[in-house]
Amino acid sequence: MDDLVKFLRDRNMEDNHAYAEVAHRFGADALLDSHLPMLDLVDMLARDYQAMDSADSRHAGLGYALKVLAQSYAEHSQYRQEWRP
What we know:
InterPro entries: DUF6221. It holds the Pfam family DUF6221. The chain has 85 residues and is an all-alpha fold. The chain is 62% helix and 0% strand. It contains three helices and no strands. The mean pLDDT is 90.
């Protein structure tokens, strides 16, 4: 599961860099309808999962949610089929 969390955080970083490039070229108003807030939430969930004790009753559910979120990157070359929920 650590590999999945790293994969998600790496994709988040790539997407954030892409949004930063758009803002730099076209101004911050270009991001008004973006998915940038969603990226922050996904990264927060990934960090929460890493910090969470595996005995926590929410651990399995959050792990499943991360697998669902990672499916948006299923076409990425580093995505692994075993991460499918």
